[in-house]
Amino acid sequence: MPDKSDKKRILIVDDNIITCEVIRRNFEISGFHVFTANSVNDAIEILSRQKINLLITDYKMPKHSGLELIKYVRDHFLDICIIMLTGYGSINSAVSAMKEGADEYITKPFTDKELLDAVTKSLLTQKEKKINSTEIYNDTWTRFGIIGQSQNMLDMFSKIEKACKNDAIVLITGENGTGKELVARAIHYNHKERSVYPFIPINCPGIPSNLFESELFGHVKGAFTGAVQHRKGFFQAAEKGCLFLDEISELPFELQAKLLRVLQEKEISRVGETQLKKIDVRIVAATNKDLEDLVKKDLFRQDLFFRLNVINIDIPPLKNRGDDIILLAKHFALKYSKELGKTEPVFTDKAITALKNYSWPGNVRELENLIHRNLIMNEKDQIDSLNFPDIMKFSVSCDQQLNLSLEDMSKKYVRDVVEQAGGNKAKALKILKIDRKTLLKKLI
Ligand SMILES: Nc1ncnc2c1ncn2[C@@H]1O[C@H](COP(=O)(O)OP(=O)(O)OP(=O)(O)O)[C@@H](O)[C@H]1O
Ligand SMILES: [Mg+2]
Hints:
With 444 residues, the protein is of the alpha/beta class. Helices cover 46% and strands 14% of the residues.
């Protein structure tokens, strides 16, 4: 059974205690988890401690108004829905509330049903927004729904910000699982004009070469055997929006020339037709390969590389993101514990050390899978390195240990294994695959 934390969490702010309590009772009956505050200051205090999905606030309050609260929430929390309660006839305040970022307003007096309908509608819109865009978390350590506050990530966020302000082609590079698609979506869904138009991801190696043109540019009926009717291509489907060309390095050489021509001319013709049509599509491409190296090896066209590499966003590997590793681990622990109806686990010190010291070849995806697996397999509300793969339990931080001799390193490793095995030497011997004598020698 999902626990209480799965309920949507509403914060009601009204200086009138009775109004607060009446609304609280109604929403609790309807299955929400409700918090109340009688002033803007109290509301801010609650927001700093609790995850809130929706805020209902009165407009007129002593000291600080509901409008100030809306401004605060919009500055700090992207994904909280806001409903403003305004006095009868005060349309001006309703307009300013909407301008500041409220999703709905309701004029007093209202019925229970009217308020409940407004809440349901706002939460639904929020869900749609989340599905369409990348998931947005309401914490201070995320930007564009991407978690990270290490300098490397902050530098990347400022590049994303720039990319959102224009239509230049973006080339996203980064190892497997670093978040390339997440960044591509962030660029699209934060673009002022394009975000309301489609984001179409294309996995380049997934398209058979002989269908490439037809898939991308569309075809007319009868263009080839099997073309029984006109068909739109991805470029047309993404009109005014964004086409995300994932794993661009895998595009066969002859198709690279065709893509280059389209990017240069900004026009396409459907297969089976000579007429050219202008296209207005933003292109974002991604790869985990070193394209410059492929260019040198004649595996990727240099002219296409230059065309694509207008803005390059290189995503840092997870091991270079410092404490972001822990932020992400905790984020995934919260996400999956909710999904599995479990209590949010605590991380032991050993787990934190192991997470920080590991080299993460599979990056964020590997971390996400590890936490997910631990929550499924583990009975306790705790994440400990004991349940991590062996390679992680005993991996040592490169930063700290590069000054050790091989002998000292191996002694340290043996001691760590014994400690990790709870002092059980037989267990340690099994892992180390050495004899007892060698073990004892290493422990001296
Ligand atoms: N900074 C981040 N904050 C939150 N979630 C992240 C972050 N980076 C990656 N993820 C999550 O990690 C997973 C992998 O991300 P994504 O698919 O964008 O990576 P990728 O670089 O495209 O991977 P691949 O190279 O395998 O195609 C996704 O579930 C994504 O939501
Ligand atoms: Mg990807």
